[in-house]
Amino acid sequence: MTSPPNAGRVLVADDDAAIRRSLERGLRLSGFAVQLAADGPAALAALTGPAAPDVVVLDVTMPGLTGTEVCRTLRARGDETPVLMLSALDEVTDRVAGLQAGADDYLVKPFALEELVLRLHALLRRRPAQAPSGVLRAGPLEIDPATRQARREGVELRLTRREFELLEQLVRNAGIVLTRDQLLDRVWGYDFDVRTDAVDTFVSYLRRKLEAGGHPRLIHTVRGVGFVLRLPEPANGGRP
Asked: Could you tell me if 163 and 209 are in contact, meaning their C-beta atoms sit under 8 angstroms apart?
């Protein structure tokens, strides 16, 4: 029997022993090297060890430290390892907090192993590459891919990695409507059919940050299609 190709190292952190065993077996059969953690502190210890994982699967609610707290700690120390959150259907508030803490996406339990594997492969393909040079500008926005900084009217925006990548795509395509599927492909690497509201969720986060202080809306919804970055009209309608 042919062994599956090495897919990378994945850390699975979940306080449910049955879920850990099931995911360990399924992910190993899919070619991943799997490390397990039963709680938040164990997950953080594994992430600071000598064989750090390439991608992390974090349960939202765990004893000791929640998945959200683990993710926030990772991002605070500059660790950009891709993180996929697992949550129960009724853990909406915790799931949102996890995404705001810097998680890349989430899956609601129960889920199909095949979908988890596809998402992990996609997140690994999206690991940061060398950033292209050149600052991008669109109206009041300035995006620097090299330093991963974004500003509106000179004021720096505090964005998570996914928020930055989403805004970068919208700025690069200012005035062009991008579908949800296009954004899932370009930002998350999901080039397969996937059920997720990640695009809408992250657009909502971006809008709050871009519109703080009463700034006019830049990211607009095109109903039934996707999203577009449109620059606000001048106050005098463009007349001198």
From this structure: yes
The verdict on pTM exceeding 0.85 is no
Q: What is the pLDDT of residues 141-156, one digit of tens each?
A: 999 988 889 999 999 9
Residue bearing tokens 């006019």: 216
Sheet holding 141-144, edge to edge: 136-138, 141-144, 149-152, 155-157
Cβ partners under 8 Å of residue 84, min gap 6: 55, 56, 57, 58, 103, 104, 105, 106, 107, 116, 119, 120, 123
Closest by CA to 165, choosing from 194, 113, 216, 129, is 129
pLDDT at 234: 61
The alpha-helical segments, DSSP class H, found in the chain are 17-29, 40-47, 67-76, 92-100, 113-125, 161-172, 180-183, 198-210
Give the Cα separation of 47 and 43 in Å (integer): 6
2-30 average pLDDT score: 86
Buried b / exposed e over 184-223, threshold 16 CB at 10 Å, is bebbbbbeeebebebbebbbebbbebbeeeeeeebbeeee
